[in-house]
Amino acid sequence: MAPTPEEIVRECYDDPALVERVAHRTTPSKMEIVEPDPAWPQTFAALKALIVDALGPTAVVVEHTGSTSVPGLPAKDIIDIDLTVPDPTDEAAYVARLEAAGFHFLLREPAWHQHRFFCRYEPTANLHVFGPDATEPVRHRIFRDWLRSHPEDKELYAETKREAMRASSQSGEDMMQYTDRKDAVVRGILQKAFRSLGYID
């Protein structure tokens, strides 16, 4: 069942203590913001085709999210993909097939939307697997679509990303701490989007 507006606006944080680590990256993710690459949509399209070919109807929805999905937005050179499957807990239905297609299974988060996370090294991508009732991919799409149509917030987010990356790099922080530095701005932009959709007053 698709999530309701009330569920979508409710914040649900992942708890690092509850993460079940499956494997570690063989190549570290780069802490670097680069200028927009017009090839990012084509890279996503190629990766989507790989996923759909590997999973068939198990790939219910495959969406390009994250900063590389917003034209003109600086980003880490990593394609973020949200994959919806009928049941994320049924790993036999998709894990081996995704790994055969070049995606590396890194972790599961049963307490956070039954999220499963994969990475890919060439081209570089993050693949997030959710079920149909998960709110997080809906929030990702709302955020993406808002930035695509509101250049002033896209510029605000771009500057926030640059400053967060500068501060995190200088402090020797990891990707999670970089994400935390952007959190207040992300929440503020989402509130605007939710209000526009009539999800909140």
From TrEMBL:
Species name: Talaromyces atroroseus
Family matches, as Pfam families: GrpB
Gene3D superfamilies: Beta Polymerase, domain 2
Matching PANTHER family: GRPB DOMAIN PROTEIN (AFU_ORTHOLOGUE AFUA_1G01530), GRPB FAMILY PROTEIN
Superkingdom classification of source: Eukaryota
Lineage of origin: Eukaryota, Fungi, Dikarya, Ascomycota, Pezizomycotina
SUPFAM superfamilies: Nucleotidyltransferase (SSF81301)
Protein name: GrpB domain protein
